[in-house]
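Let us work through a complete example step by step.
Step 1: write down the sequence.
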Amino acid sequence: MKSLSIFFFIFSYLATFGQIDPQVENIIKIGKTDNQTMEHLDILCNRFGGRPIGSDAYENAAVWVASKFTEWGMQVEMDEAGELPVGFNRGPWFGRLLGEEGMHLHFATPSYTSGTKGVQRGHVLIEPQTQAEFDRMRGQLKGAWVLIGGENNGFPIDISEKADKVRDSIISVNADIEKQNYEIRRENRKNRDKGEEKELLPLVEEPALFYKQMKEAGILGIIQSSSVPIRVMYDRKNIMDLTFENLPTVPDIKLDEHQYEVIEQMVKERRYFQLEFDIRNHFKMGPIKYHNVIGIIPGIEFADEYVIVGGHLDSYDVATGGVDDGSGATPSMEAARLIMESGGKPKRTILVCLWAGEEFGLLGSTSWIERNEDKLDKISNMFNRDGGPTVPLSMNVSKAMWDDMEKICEPINTINPDFPFTLEEREPRDRPEKAWGTDSGPFAVKGVPTLGFNNEDPKGYNFSYREIWHTERDLYNKSIAEYQEHAAIATAIVVYGVANLDHLLSREGYYIQSGKK
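Step 2: predict the structure and record it as C-alpha cells.
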C-alpha cells in the first residue's frame, strides 16, 4: 500500500515551497495573511442566524452569498431547486414557572410549529392515557399546558389526519385493555387474602394520545421531555401539506428533561403553580421558492468539465448553523475567494455550490442532479464539507488517482507544520444504492467520485459533533478558527489542482464494478 507522510523541518519546508506552482503559492500566501473564512461565518451566523429553507434568513443569506461571488469576479447562478407551500420565521422565545420559588424554563420548539398568542399563562396537567381519564379531566384541559410522554427526537408530534386515526385506534385498544384490567382488579380484590393478585395489562403508550380531543378542549400547548442540549428540527411529516389556512395552532414544546422531571413531580403532588410561555413562531404565505447558490469559475480549456466544491447553506434555526453547515459553506466560499484573488484561471470549470434544503432531505443537491444528468460524467470530483470545523489531515485516494493527487496535495504541507498532511490508499467500494445523509450522497449514487478530506482535532479542542448536531449549541463560537482557515486554504489548493489537470480524475477502481475490484 502506498503511503505519503511528510513531516517538515525548516529546510525541507523552504525547499518544497520554492517548487510550488506560483498560482498555488499565491493562494497560500493570501490564505495565510488575509484569511476571511471566519468573517464569512460571522455574517452567516450572527447577521442572518439559523437558515431553514422557507425563512427570510435563508433567502437573505443566499442573496448575500451571491453578492460575494459577484464581488470576487465569479459568475453566479441562483439555481431554483424547489418550493415550500408556506414559509417560517422564528422569533424570540422564553418561558418561566410561576409560583413557589419560580424557574426560568429551558426549552425549544421545532420549525414549522405554532407559537403562542403572546404571553400565555396556564396550569399544568399530565396527559390522559385512557378515555375514562380524559373524560374525568376534560373540564380542566381548557387553558392548560399538558405534559406528554415519550422522549424528544427533534421532530414535533404528528398532527396529521393519518396520525389522528392511528391514535384513535390506540385509544380503542386501550379501552379494551382497561375493560380487562377492570376485571383483573375485581378478581384481585376477591383474592386479596389469598396472595394471588394478577398483574394489570400494560396500556399501549403513545405521546399526545388524545391530541385532537385535548386541542378541541382548549389546551394551550403540549410539553415533552428533552435531553440536553435540546435538539429540534422541523415538521417533516406535514410540511408539504401545510397551507396558510391549516397551520398548526398548538405549541409543541421540548423542555429540558431536568426541569420536566421537577414540573411533573409538582403536578403529581397537586401543587399549585403556572407556566408562562411567549413563543414567537411566525409563518408567511407561500409558495416559497428556495435556491442553490452556485458560484462559477469558468474553465479556460475544458469549460464543459467540472470540479464541484461546497456545503449546504441551510441550517436549523434553534441555533445559527455555525457548524452544520457553516463549517462547510464558509471554507468553500473562502477557497473560491482565494482562487479568484490569486488570479486563478483553471482549465476546467469550478462550481462552488452552496446547497439548499440539505436538512430537509438533500433537496437542493438532488434537484440539481435531476436537472443536470448530462454533466455527471464530466465531473472530475465532488468535494463536500459537512462534518464539523476540524482540520484536514489526510485523504484516501484510489490507485488510479494517486499520482495526480500526490502532486496536487503536496503544497498542503507548506501551509502549517502543525497540520502535516498524508495520503492513504482507498480500496474500491460498492457504489451506494441510496444517498447517505449529506449532499455528496446523491452524487455517489450516480457514480460521481466524492473524494474528500479526513478531518481531525489534533490540537485537542475537544470538539464533539454530536453535541451540536441539530441542537441549540450549533453556534458561531463552536467553530475552530485555525482549523477552518487551514481547511479553506487546503480546499483551494486541491480544487484548483484538480481543475488544472489536463484530464479528468480517473474513476477506475473508485467504485466496485460488476462485483470486481
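Step 3: interpret the result. The longest strand covers residues 75-98.
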